# Entry
Amino acid sequence: MATVTEKIKKLCADRKMSEEELAEGAGLTVEQVKRICRSDLIPSLASLIKIARALGVRLGTFLDDSEEVGPVVHRHSPAMEEATFTSHQTSPNAHMDFVSLAGRKGGRNMEPFLVHIQSGSGKESFSSHEGEEFLYVLEGSITVRYGREEYILQQGDSIYYDSIVDHLVTATGATEAKILGVIYTPA
# Structure
């Protein structure tokens, strides 16, 4: 499977789009785009959504394994492949590991993830992007900073919000949390 970075480069080449043009279209700095294109790490979810919009593709284009038209069943496996999203800032924002639950479903508009949130990394940064998010706490406790508000959610709690507002999700306390997250980005 091609890496996210390889897919971004291929889409840019197909569209004869320079890194500078991608940066302008995505609302990112040229330095951020260059860092993303030269790294094997997956950029932040917010950056990836902005890049997808600039390239005219779905967010899932970067995460797809294959294109299945019908339903996709994702079976639990102890060796589920995780994708750790990083920050386009200078230090990594790797406090969340995402397991895509619909990577083989082509043409999807929602991105369901199983997300493991590590506690106390101290390197988190706020995010904002087009669309909506739904989070359901499976294990542990999370803090959701949304604009100027802060919400603490326990196991069984959920939150649904417009992701254009600055937001940050972290594990509350010293234990890792596990959530089901569904992200919708308009096409």
User: Anything to note?
Assistant: Strands lie at 83-84, 96-100, 110-117, 132-139, 141-146, 149-154, 158-162, 167-171, 177-184. The CA atoms of residues 68 and 105 lie 5 Å apart. Residues 86-93 have pLDDT under 50 and may be disordered.
